[in-house]
Amino acid sequence: MDSDRPSGPLTISFLQPVSAFGAYWGSGYRCALCRPYDDSPSILTFRDVNGNVIGSDSFFYRGNGALMWRGYTFATPVKTITRTAGDGKEGVAMDGLQATVASNSPLLYNISTRGFAQTGNNVLIGGLIINGSGPKKVWLRGLGPTLGQPPFNVANAMANPTLNLFQGSTLIAANDNWGDAASQEAIRDTGLAPPNAFESAILISLNPGSYTAIIRAVNNNTTGNALFEAYDLDNTAASKFGNISTRGFVQTSNDVMTAGVVVHGPGSKNILIRALGPTLGQPPFDLPHSLPDPFLDLRDANGTRITANDNWKSSQQTQIQATGLTPPNDAESAIATTLAAANYTAIVTGVNNTTGNPLVEGYGFN
User: Fold this and answer.
1) What is the pLDDT along the chain (366 residues), one digit of tens a residue?
2) Nearest C-alpha neighbor of 274 from the set 329, 213, 355
3) Would you tell me how many other CB atoms lie within 10 Å of the CB of residue 86?
């Protein structure tokens, strides 16, 4: 039966580079005697406009011709996707292809923060500002159990996070287990469904404005490390992510605050990252246990330090003041930089292993 399957790879070439891609894939043949999965993996290779390989993935088809969804997002726009098979036999079926054309200007595509969510006032709080003139399709996730699994292996991962989204004091969306959401099929179709059934997700269209997401344990009586993520699923819209911020409780060792930023598109993006601490303890916030002296460390996708800052006036004072977003307290940290399309991580710790609540913020500028 395999002899009926044609040989040779399948290459999809896009007229314009794309920042996201998804499709339903199948083995292209039906076999009543097939095992649940094919023996050889299907391999997808992603290349940019210059033909450089920027990523790959492999997966096994289900037998009997069943289709399965594979969805991807790219920090560097993709021009071609090539599918090959481990056995060299390329019978393939594909349906429901979806792709998002990459923006002509760099943008903040994904912003995320991992922190230790406690109870009461010390839950994990994410802030999101959308700038522009029209609605934006946004994808929010609250992960917990996944952090405790390979390859992350984070200790004290939150067992069952819930996600609430507010505009001002009004609750506009909420989710506990993402599979229970009315939009679960749409969530699956993003290719970004949470890996664990106890994790949370909200798929929503938001008008320009300020929003707050709160991540806590399901009964608000347990603690653990959680990850808040926000994705821009409509980078051709008239609105963009302008700011992301997260407040959580920084401890020591692995229980510090980690913020991720993904920049999409050609060219580079001007970014300001701030880590506030003492300001949170002052009016109008009056937050107990604010972090007295935050330290900010910016790293690339390989974990290599790009730059770091303790007190914002110690370096880049002129550049930071030019943004109009200087930290209110001299002990707070800030980094002004230009980032090419890629993945980055900002880590907030307390100087001399101090603990407390900081606020980490990321701003994008054209």
Assistant:
1) 333 444 457 788 877 677 777 776 665 444 444 444 445 677 888 888 888 888 888 766 555 555 566 677 676 778 888 878 655 555 555 555 665 555 544 445 456 677 777 877 778 888 888 877 888 888 899 999 998 888 888 888 899 999 999 999 999 999 999 988 777 777 777 777 888 999 999 989 999 888 988 998 888 778 888 888 888 777 655 667 756 677 676 777 767 788 877 776 666 788 889 999 999 889 888 888 889 999 999 998 888 999 999 999 998 999 999 988 899 999 999 999 998 878 888 889 999 989 888 888 888 776
2) 329
3) 13
Q: Which residues does residue 164 pair with via DSSP β-bridges, in sequence order? A: 174, 214
CA distance 341 to 75: 6
**What is the Cα–Cα distance from 286 to 279, expressed in whole angstroms?**
9
Map residue 353 onto helix, strand or coil: helix
**All domains of the chain in start order, with CATH:** 2-101 (2.60.120.1150), 107-365 (2.60.120.380)
Query: What single-letter amino acid sits at 98?
Result: Q
Overall pTM surpassing 0.70 (yes/no):
no
Backbone angles phi, psi at 213, to 5 degrees: -115, 135
Cβ-proximal residues to 167 (8 Å cutoff; 6+ apart), any chain:
209, 210, 211, 212
Choose among 29, 18, 95: nearest CA to 64. Answer: 29
Instruction: Return the closest-CA partner of residue 108 out of 232, 211, 192.
Output: 232
Terminal C-alpha separation, the chain: 56
Taking the CB of residue 328, how many other CB atoms lie within 10 A of it? 10
